[in-house]
Amino acid sequence: SPHQDLHLNIHNKSTLDQAMRTYFRQEDIGVDECNKYSCENCKKKTRAVKQFFIERPPNVLLICLKR
Fold this sequence. Notes:
Radius of gyration: 16 Å
Number of helices: 1
Largest sheet: 2 strands, parallel
């Protein structure tokens, strides 16, 4: 796509670099039994990891800083 929007949370005295690292870090989901990922192949609930990434850099990147 020609552009992409990122909405980053900025906390007290955090930098843009820190906000982007937080946005793109791996997040462990399914720690609690009720939040586990349901695998379509084996039909069992399991822990999983989710992570955002940019597969192809856009021509324009819009960064919205949220406080």
